[in-house]
Design a protein that fits this description.
3 domains; 236 residues; 6 helices; Zincin-like; alpha/beta
């Protein structure tokens, strides 16, 4: 169960209520806001009290680094990469073209890469490019993993979410975000396995986690920890 609360100091705090949890954990969400994971059934008043109790520690919690772009930067993706370059031909434009498995993204030499608007434009261009690549690289991997596990979803689709990286629909279609393209293959496989486990258990019960753990070779907890620590190289 997911939602959020508002805090006078930290602003919007994402909340995930999870069955089986016995304590409260804090980290940072991909959007830069705090994320609180707490036991299912905890009231809003209790969530706010937990923030107050942990306030001093939250002030010392290391914040994730913001997204930055620089000329010469290489963003490694699944089976491809993005290289940010400078161009002097067309002020105000961001040019891009593929050479093999490399996307050359060219910003004008006068562009301020620290500007939030330019960051969002660069992120949008890269995101659209990864959506195309996801059909070519991500979906074949998902089909391969499903075959290895002996499960048969109704199909696979590409989505765009950063918060919702995968989804198993009621019609047994697995949706995978194009943003998985920025992740190492081990995390991509984990999210695929997670969604494939939902074909059997459409919940997050102990039985679901046991199956997901089996699908990931006994590494579900470690992979989930790695996923929580992952930071996207583009803006959402």
């Amino acid at each position: 169960m997911r939602g959020y609360i508002e805090d006078k100091e930290f602003g919007k705090i994402h909340v995930e209520l999870r069955r089986g949890m016995t304590s409260v954990r804090f980290t940072y969400h991909a959007d830069g806001n705090l994320l609180m994971r707490a036991p299912l059934g905890v009231s809003v008043a209790d969530l706010q009290r937990m923030v107050d109790i942990n306030r001093e520690g939250l002030r010392r919690l290391p914040q994730p680094a913001g997204v930055t772009f620089t000329v010469g930067q290489v963003i490694e993706c699944y089976k491809c990469r993005v290289v940010i370059e400078s161009q002097s031909r067309m002020p105000g434009y961001i040019l891009n073209h593929w050479e093999g498995d490399t996307l050359h993204l060219q910003v004008h030499e006068s562009a301020d890469l620290g500007d939030e608007g330019i960051k969002r434009t660069i992120s949008s261009v890269i995101g659209r490019a990864m959506e195309v690549q996801a059909h070519a690289s991500l979906l074949p991997l998902a089909r391969q993993v499903a075959e290895e596990l002996g499960v048969a979803p109704a199909g696979f689709e590409v989505g765009r979410g950063m918060r919702k990286l995968g989804h198993c629909t009621a019609k047994r279609v697995i949706q995978l975000s194009r943003n998985l393209m920025f992740m190492p293959e081990a995390l991509i496989r984990y999210i695929i396995c997670h969604e494939l486990a939902h074909l059997t258990h459409m919940n997050h019960s102990p039985e679901f986690h046991a199956l997901c753990n089996r699908y990931t070779g006994g590494h579900e907890r470690d992979l989930e920890r790695q996923l929580r620590q992952f930071r996207f190289p583009i803006l959402k």
